[in-house]
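User: Run a structure prediction on this.
Assistant: Running it now.
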Amino acid sequence: MRPEWLDGEGWQIESEPHVSIGVAEGDSTQQLFSDAVRLADGTIVIVDRGTNRVRWYDASGSYVRGAGRSGAGPGEFSDLGPGSICVLSDERLLVSDPIQARANVFASDGTFLEVIEAPPVGAAFPSIQGCYDDGALQLWHSEQGPDRIPDTIIGAEFVWTRFGVNGAAANELARIPVRTQYLLSDGAGGGSYHTIPFMVRPASAVGGERFYLTTGAHPEITVRRSDGTLEAVWRWAPERIRSGDVLARYETHMIDAQTRPDRRAQTARFFRVGLDAPEYIASTVRLLAADDGHLWAERYRLPWDTIRTWDVFTPEGVWLGLVSVPAAFDAYRIHDDAMLGRIADEDGVEQVASYALRR
């Protein structure tokens, strides 16, 4: 499959955000943003991991109200990590707390409504990763292998299940073995984990009544209905980079990036193990289902790349082409007129920013 857009065609984002939320001064724990959504009236709702609070802002970025706090009671959170929030069809907000294996549900105005417990799947308590249009939940968990032997590749299985809106038992949608981590022994009974060069974990997204999944290793996305029925497999043909062409530079970069002497030594030892890298660098690291039904797939980015690139697909699976964004911009949501996400400056100060999307 070749892209539909010709050179000079395609979508672009504006060079500067039209809405920015965050301050350059103050307590940095107030700016550990991990997710954000935009509601139909333009309200922006932000998940603040630093304070375990959910914050509401108007369309111009002015603060309106907040909800939640640290704790184990109704409306309270232990950890608000990436991908914590999703919007149900009636604009109720489901905010996931993976440590407590549950989600708090709020009305669009911030009123607390209820707690939804994530059901155990076998011995695991999965994280809530998204919501289908009918209110069903997309769950994910990892099943680790029984042994973690030093100086070996550590295996696991990633499992995705759907939990019915009426409390029906979760049904498994996909299961993928993952072998991307190496446990390097420290010689004293412990060790450090290292990602095998150019390998990534699988990525998934929920949009409407669809479940999208990619291993990330190849330019291929599996599309399933929410009941698990296979609908399509999308494949495309981007230009790919051979691992051998960049491995030496990658190794040097990863060692030099370590600021602690012990971590620098560990990283150098890891590369001396000589693990085989895949023939090509990974294809895709993340999927986002846009409001209008398009699917966006973020390409694997080498550490020295100065931009992020996203492959864009129509709801029918037609590959349109690429959209580039600044490397520091981590997109959370894609709307028909804007990309909403987090951006950090050179000092690590975070802001939630909305960039206009020109089609």
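Residues 204 and 213 are 4 Å apart (CA to CA).
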